[in-house]
Amino acid sequence: MYAAERQQRIIAQARRAGRVEVAALADVLGVAAETVRRDLTALERRGSLRRVHGGAIPVERLEIEPTLATRTGRLTEVKRRIAARALDELPSGGSIILDAGSTTQAVAELLPPDIDLTVLTNSLAAATVLSSHPGIRLYLLGGRLRGTTGAAVGDWATSALEGVVVDVALIGTNGLSVARGLTTPDQSEALVKRAMVGAARKCVVLTDSSKTGDDHLHRFAQLADVDVVITDTDIDDDVAAEIRSAGPEVVTA
Prior knowledge:
Oligomer: single chain
Number of domains: 2
Structural class: alpha/beta
Keywords: Repressor, Transcription, Transcription regulation
Domain HTH deoR-type: 3-58
Order of helices and strands: HEHHEEHHEHEHEEEHEEEHEEEHE
Protein name: Lactose phosphotransferase system repressor
Function: Repressor of the lactose catabolism operon. Galactose-6-phosphate is the inducer.
Strand content: 15-25%
Radius of gyration: 18 Å
Distance between the termini: 26 Å
Largest sheet: 7 strands, parallel
CATH topology of the largest domain: Rossmann fold
GO molecular function: DNA-binding transcription factor activity
CATH class of the largest domain: Alpha Beta
Number of strands: 15
CATH architecture of the largest domain: 3-Layer(aba) Sandwich
C-alpha cells in the first residue's frame, strides 16, 4: 500500500471514529507502529489531524483556513529551498505570474535586486517586497483583498488575467493529488488560480510534500495542466512517480 493511500485510510478512520490509535492502526494496516507515527506526523504537518497521546484526532481543514502568517511560519527552510529552486524556472527578461502564498512569498524575497523581469501578482505582501526592485516591472492585480491570505480575488483579478499571456506562472496550492489535481479551500482564490494557470505558457507548482495526497473543496487545475512540480525531498518516491505519470516533471529541493 502506498503511503498516500495509507494516509487517506487513516484520515477516513479518524473522521468515522473521532480518534485513531497508533497500535490499532498498525494492526489494521499491517505496518510497524513507527510507520504509523510517521504518517500521523505527515498528516499533522498538513493540518489534517492533530496528534494526541497514543494517536490522533481529526481536524476539518475546510472550517479553519490557516492565515498567511501562520503558513509562513511553517516549514520555513523547506519553503526557502523550494523557492530557491524555482528561480531556475524564471525566464531572463521575461514575464511571470506570482501567486499569493507562503512559498511564493519566499520566491519574492529571494529574487535578486537587479533581476530583469515582469511580474504580475495578486499578493499584497509580494508586491510590497518587489516594489523596490529597480529591474522588475511590477503589475499588481486588483480586487477584493482576503485578509486570511493577503490575496486579491474576484472579477477584477480574473478579468485582468484574461487579457495577458506570460511565460511562467508560479502557483501555490493547499492540496495536490493525482485523483483530484490541485485544490484550495476558498472558491474565490480557486478562480484566480485557475485564471493564472490559463494565462501562462508554463505552469510551475510550488508545494511542500506534506500537501500531497490532500484534497480541498475547490479544484483549480488538473495535474495535466502543470508542467513542473517543485517540492521537497521528503516526498515519497511512489507519490512522486504517481505525479509524474499524470504529466508534470517532479523536482525536489
